[in-house]
Write a structure and sequence with these properties.
209 residues, alpha+beta, Glucose Permease (Domain IIA), ten-stranded antiparallel β-sheet, two-stranded antiparallel sheet, 12 strands, 16% helix, globular
């Protein structure tokens, strides 16, 4: 699914600075075995991410605070999760998962468990690994500079309570009505009669003239 870059806040921080503020997407022992731009399908396409190899079931964590915008499963990325960063314009993409541990709309914090390493989708014939990508607007960008030097966690941080991102709902407009059994005061009645009498008299005079 594509998103307009105008949907998200912009950032001018260089990748090297961001790398110090985020964490590596796999907690535990792992190694990067495939890089941005590597050939795929005999050179028909290029790899738009990095592959991080680790044992099946190894924890996959959110690299930054944000909220989950997609939890999907298809024939290519298999079980995948997409998280929009709170602080940066980009969103992080985690694919070929064995398990998905979060739900769409859920708020997550940096280092929180979101899934586990697997080989779902078109990676079912390969060694378990995490395909990690970063997207800004509609374009994929090389994620390596953002996480290559990031701190690696031995285990996920304690998860925050499950909270979902919600847009504030506008308050409904309540129409005010006069109760049916409410009686008009004598003064109001008298004023109304005088006004109507005057209007009627002016109309009669107009006809007679």
């Amino acid at each position: 699914m594509l998103y307009s870059s105008s949907t998200f806040a912009s950032t001018e921080k260089p990748a090297s600075a961001i790398a110090k503020a985020v964490v590596f997407p796999v907690a535990g022992k792992s190694n990067i075995g495939s890089y941005w731009g590597d050939e795929r399908d005999g050179g028909v396409r290029r790899h738009e991410g990095i592959d991080i190899f680790s044992a099946r079931g190894t924890a996959v964590v959110a690299v930054a605070d944000g909220y989950v915008i997609e939890v999907t499963e298809d024939g290519i990325g298999g079980k995948s999760i997409t998280i929009q960063s709170d602080e940066y314009s980009w969103r992080s993409y985690y694919a070929h998962l064995d398990e998905q541990k979060v739900s769409r709309g859920q708020l997550v914090k940096k280092g929180q468990l979101i899934g586990t390493v697997g080989n779902s989708g078109n990676a079912k014939t390969t060694t378990p690994h995490l395909h990690f990508g970063i997207y800004d607007g509609n374009a994929a960008i090389d994620p390596l500079p953002y996480v290559q030097t990031s701190p690696k966690l031995a285990a996920p941080v304690k998860a925050m309570p499950v909270v979902y991102k919600q847009s504030p709902s506008p308050k409904p407009t309540v129409a005010k009505s006069i109760p049916k059994n409410r009686k008009l005061s004598p003064m109001i009645k008298s004023t109304a009669v005088n006004i109507l009498t005057g209007i009627f008299a002016r109309k009669i005079r107009g006809v007679l003239q």
